[in-house]
Specification:
Layout (H helix, E strand, L loop, with lengths): L1 H13 L5 H25 L6 H9 L1 H5 L20 E7 L4 E17 L6 E16 L6 H9 L17
Antiparallel strand pairs: 1-2, 2-3
Helix pairs in contact: 1-2
Length: 167
């Protein structure tokens, strides 16, 4: 990811398409990637992660979230603020259907971790995953999927993570 990001930034810069805002976002993204790479290296070598690194991991999410904020000249439409999305990933002409992957609204996830001899609970946000099929003659849009999610007209939760949900 680091190499790809650096290559993309260099290509945009070479073509004169990198203004200060975009350059700053690239630099922030690269800094975060390098931070995460350092943490991953420590994890695989069982090196201790410092309290400051844990705190950066816990509180640094805003740096990444700023990467996707609109540019100054952009205006976010209300319809674009809804997180459920759907994408068609495979067309099966033999069965006459389209396979979709979709997300719902964010959920809170609590996980028990026991790394570096410090067992603890961690909390974060995850998106619920859905897999569904539809007819070949009608492709679902994000707006149609969002209406289904809002109406709680959802496909069955996949068996492999059904037991992870708590009501």
């Amino acid at each position: 990811m680091i190499a790809l990001t650096e290559l993309t930034r260099a290509g945009l810069e070479q073509k004169g398409l990198l203004d200060d805002d975009v350059a700053g976002r690239f630099q922030t993204f690269l800094d975060q990637l390098r931070f995460y790479q350092g943490l991953a290296e420590k994890e695989v070598t069982n090196a201790p992660i410092s309290d400051a690194e844990y705190e950066s991991l816990r509180t640094g999410f805003w740096k990444v979230s700023q990467l996707i904020t609109p540019f100054d000249s952009e205006e976010i439409q209300e319809k674009d603020k809804k997180p459920p999305l759907i994408a068609d990933i495979h067309t099966d002409a033999l069965k006459g259907q389209i396979l979709y992957q979709a997300t719902g609204y964010p959920l809170i996830m609590i996980a028990f971790v026991a790394d570096q001899k410090t067992p603890r609970l961690t909390i974060g946000v995850v998106y619920r995953h859905f897999e569904l099929t539809g007819p070949l003659d009608k492709r679902y849009t994000d707006e149609e999927w969002q209406a289904r999610v809002d109406a709680k007209d959802l496909p069955e939760t996949p068996f492999f993570y059904r037991d992870l949900f708590v009501q």
